[in-house]
Amino acid sequence: xxxxxxxxxxxxxxxxxxxxxxxxxxxxxxxxxxxxxxxxxxxxxxxxxxxxxxxxxxxxxxxxxxxxxxxxxxxxxxxxxxxxxxxxxxxxxxxxxxxxxxxxxxxxxxxxxxxxxxxxxxxxxxxxxxxxxxxxxxxxxxxxxxxxxxxxxxxxxxxxxxxxxxxxxxxxxxxxxxxxxxxxxxxxxxxxxxxxxxxxxxxxxxxxxxxxxxxxxxxxxxxxxxxxxxxxxxxxxxxxxxxxxxxxxxxxxxxxxxxxxxxxxxxxxxxxxxxxxxxxxxxxxxxxxxxxxxxxxxxxxxxxxxxxxxxxxxxxxxxxxxxxxxxxxxxxxxxxxxxxxxxxxxxxxxxxxxxxxxxxxxxxxxxxxxxxxxxxxxxxxxxxxxxxxxxxxxxxxxxxxxxxxxxxxxxxxxxxxxxxxxxxxxxxxx
Length: 430
What we know:
By secondary structure, the protein is mainly alpha-helical. The protein has 20 helices and no strands.
């Protein structure tokens, strides 16, 4: 109503510019408030608040908002399913057992624990996706560092955040954004590995090196070695099998080209039903310990992105690509990969992937497609709002009473993300 009144009194061009500016202000403010979290309010209040303002000022129609929410349906099902599996595993003390094994294996060496967690993070990301690494691995690492009596747990927790993005383009299922970017043009697995195997190895290795040397003073310290390994209960074994089953389901669905959300949700519900049949309906209480607020937060992000799309972002990207390709494909490849990497930190990488998919599927050279995907996957290692994985990571840490500021993450993100991104793009020509 407010915008309409102004439109009657002014020319359309000025109002269009005003609307675009207002959309960007609301979007950036919402993301900033997720980071700052005033009054300790949950993250979803700020994305939903931004969405409400877009609707209030008629910058986004209810139809567009609904369409935006529906675009995230697969993400809601996937993350919700993973959170349920993780909570069951936590409740059955599977993470306690895994943590004790990890600390025992390290034999009093912080460096060995660091390597062990990193390798597990790589494997979890490859076969379960980056979001699953955050949801499943982070709680286990928290238990491990507490069992090892480590005074500063952050270097080990940073592994979860950074490796979740660094290893997220080894396979198509390693990051839901991969499937979003390519859509129906997703390459077969053999072709995918041929294109991304070397950049993935570079990303994983360089991320490890940069993170280790940045945090080595806090890593190369003696840790508790006399850790009693608790017995693995039958219910914990069932949880472990459930996680393995989910991994197999994801691999099969990816190979067949199906969305991953519904199979993940169904796998988690099946695991919950098995636990209920075994232990009774009182196990339903575990549902109240899951951070369900993550789902409306994601929905709010998708509505905000619908608003950003109305500012001409897609047209700008198309124009920039056409202009760049007319001058130099190599230069455009670099600018596309790095530019998308930084853009992901402004609007989050999954919504950014939705925007990029329209450009990619419109037909651009293969090298540029690969560079853009690497930017989507690796770029978010710069900031805590760059990907859903890092936002989930922050939510889990806050739930456990562990605080990290956006500035703390950014200082490390520059050191870890930029070399990995640049070198991963560089080897595209090898």
